[in-house]
Amino acid sequence: MPFDTIITWINPYDQMVIHDDFMTYQELIAAAEVDPLIDLDAVEFANQDQYNNPVTSQRMHGVTPVAFDDPDRANIPVRGYWYLVGSKWWVAWIYNNAKVIRKPQANPNAHGKPPYVIGFLHPESHTGLTESVLNVNKDSFVALNGIRNQRFDNVALILNKHAIVRSDANADIASLMNRRPGGVTSVDGDVRTAIGWDEVPDVAASGYLEENRLERDLDEATGLPDLKKGIREQQDELATQSLIKNEAANKKGSVNTQVMKVTFYIPIIEMLIALGRQHETDEKVMAIVGARM
Prior knowledge:
By secondary structure, the protein is of the alpha+beta class. It is 47% helix and 15% strand. Strand 4 (88-95) and strand 5 form a beta hairpin. The longest helix is centred in the C-terminal third of the chain and has 41 residues, at 239-279.
């Protein structure tokens, strides 16, 4: 299942996974109807505790922007603990480390692992969660977006020029700010000296050029050089240099693919196969097919 790395804590020795989530009172009650491990007394305690929470009280009285009048709609923080006991994984639901909402249960999945798979693209030594490609190159993305925003602002200023009005011209400022086809603006004296326009230089061409350079730098950093895209290098270089660059880029792409396959794709496929064998047995499949015939 997908999870947010901000609210999920993973033990570096693969002994514990903690996942924070939010459920409403109605969701917990509905789950208790089909799950005997959920403690209704703990659910009632959590619901009442959340109702008495200062933030919840403020929402009930409309103090905060997110207001509601039904206490059962209060979000109850549910912390899921997956922990290793010996060689077997167990799971339990806890409310604020105060009440056990769902009693501990041995892992019900046939694959025997928590329902989480963490894949790596750039593995790092002694690091549980490594940096992603986006984080590694975030400065390039920020610079690229900055150039684009400045180019858009430049075009907007060129199309909507800044007016400079002489203070004693008695110009109709409202009509200048709301220009439209067929509009009229009244001024005193010579209009050529009463109103001027701030001429902004057009930097769109240089903006596009800088954006292209940043995109090429980003491609180089992510293992996609010009040679691999079929673009000729700006400077002349030896054929051996081109071959070395191309070979290095291919190796980087191959390593990334292999790492993702071993750490992400294969574990997911193994889990899905195990769950299919567990829940879609031959007897169940034949029963479903027979019921529909």
